[in-house]
Design goal:
The complex is a heterodimer of chains A (162) and B (199).
Chain A lengths: L3 H10 L4 E4 L9 H6 L4 E4 L3 H13 L4 E6 H6 L1 H10 L6 E5 L13 H11 L3 E5 L5 H14 L3 E6 L4
Parallel strand pairs in A: 1-2, 1-3, 3-4, 4-6, 5-6
Helix pairs in contact in A: 3-5
Chain B lengths: L5 H11 L5 E4 L1 H9 L7 E3 L8 H11 L5 E6 H6 L2 H9 L4 E7 L2 E2 L5 E2 L15 H8 L3 E5 L2 H11 L6 E6 L15 H13 L1
Parallel strand pairs in B: 1-2, 1-3, 3-4, 4-8, 7-8
Antiparallel strand pairs in B: 5-6
Helix pairs in contact in B: 1-2, 1-7, 3-5
Classes of the chains: A alpha/beta (162), B alpha/beta (199).
Chain lengths: 162, 199
């Protein structure tokens, strides 16, 4: 979909300071480019729920963090989403990999396709589905508008494999 | 087994913390912190909380503000809900982070039911070894206290050691103590703390 260099450039342009992440096969390979980009720091956490709380702490400390995980980790994150995004109203944006959206060969009938978008709706996260590399500027514009509005927003990146 | 009264343990931290230190309190420790007087502008009274995430919020603040000491007063039940954060913390190695585990062996705010880490909650009647766990995770300084005088005496060293520091504090459970109460709207408190730290 995108290269790590493209994503790092985008995040730098948006003023993101920290990317808090658990990798998957699509967003994981972007990590090296993010970790070496000037002004960006990659923070690796053990489980996705942690990511929102670490990002929340970074925001409290005056930084501008972003969470980057797979949709499976979104499902794991429920209590952290409720608390950080809604109790404390800390506007943490995210990039979320949408497992199996483009190709179900590895996991036929993958229920990520059933639950991901309803889960984002349930958590009141304003998301933009990105299914093609041509949507790079749409991705940038969506995250930029969420940051400007200080509302929780996500870029949902269609993935082709588990 | 010797154990500290939680209020005494928390009082010692209130007295020893520096004016520029950030203190994060949750669950039973938050209740006692609140009972002891008004909050400091750099306190994060983590109520409402997400289950076990005080350590993760503390890590985020410590990374954002490396020149300030960040002290997290956590419970053992909360710690068990987010054990991976011990490894996340040591992966980042924040020298300014002090994690104080107030271990009463119970989910105190729900009536002091035993946690799975304490003898009463384990089929074998053994207990989780928090000191060994923290050392294995890679904390640079790991200490244990189970009486008030040694805790008071050790605190200055705890608060000046190069972190991340892990303190296992053995405390008494109180089944009737209840939980902490929110001191006000969380979004307002979040923005006030961010402003205080950004200024």
């Amino acid at each position: 979909m995108f290269t790590g260099t493209q994503i790092a450039a985008l995040l730098t342009r948006l003023g993101i300071t920290h990317v808090v992440t658990v990798p998957d096969s699509t967003v994981g390979p972007w990590g090296d480019a993010i970790a070496t980009a000037p002004g960006l720091k990659l923070v690796r956490v053990c489980r996705e729920g942690e990511a929102w709380a670490v990002a929340g702490g970074l925001w409290l400390g005056g930084q501008r963090p972003l969470v980057m995980i797979q949709c499976t980790g979104l499902f794991e994150s429920g209590d952290a989403l409720r608390n950080i995004l809604h109790d404390w109203k800390i506007p943490v944006p995210s990039i979320i990999g949408y497992r199996s959206y483009l190709n179900q060969t590895a996991l036929p009938g993958d229920t990520c396709l059933v639950f991901t978008e309803p889960a984002l709706d349930a958590w009141r996260i304003d998301y933009k589905l990105i299914t093609s590399p041509d949507q790079y500027e749409e991705l940038a514009a969506h995250l930029e508008s969420c940051l400007a509005a200080e509302c929780p927003g996500a870029a949902l990146i269609a993935e082709g494999r588990a | 087994m010797s154990a500290l009264a939680l209020r005494d343990a928390v009082m010692a931290v209130r007295q020893a913390r520096g004016d520029g230190d950030i203190v994060i309190v949750t669950m039973g420790a938050a209740r006692e912190w609140q009972a002891l007087g008004p909050l400091h502008p750099l306190d994060l009274f983590f109520v409402p909380s997400a289950m076990g995430h005080a350590t993760s919020v503390g890590l985020g603040i410590a990374l954002a503000r490396p020149a300030r000491r960040v002290i997290v007063l956590n419970g053992d039940g909360s710690m068990l809900m987010n054990l991976g954060s011990l490894v996340t913390i040591t992966a980042e190695r924040p020298e300014n982070l002090v994690l104080v585990l107030c271990d009463n062996g119970a989910y105190e705010v729900t009536g002091a039911q035993p946690t799975p880490g304490t003898p009463a909650g384990r089929a074998g009647g053994d207990a989780v070894d928090w000191v060994a766990m923290a050392r294995a995770a890679g904390f640079t300084a790991v200490l244990r206290f189970d009486d008030l005088s040694s805790w008071r005496e050790g605190l200055p060293g705890v608060l000046t050691a190069a972190g991340p520091v892990f303190v296992h504090l053995v405390t008494q459970a109180d089944a009737d103590a209840g939980g902490p109460r929110s001191p006000g709207p969380a979004p307002d408190r979040a923005r006030a703390l961010r402003a205080a730290l950004s200024g």
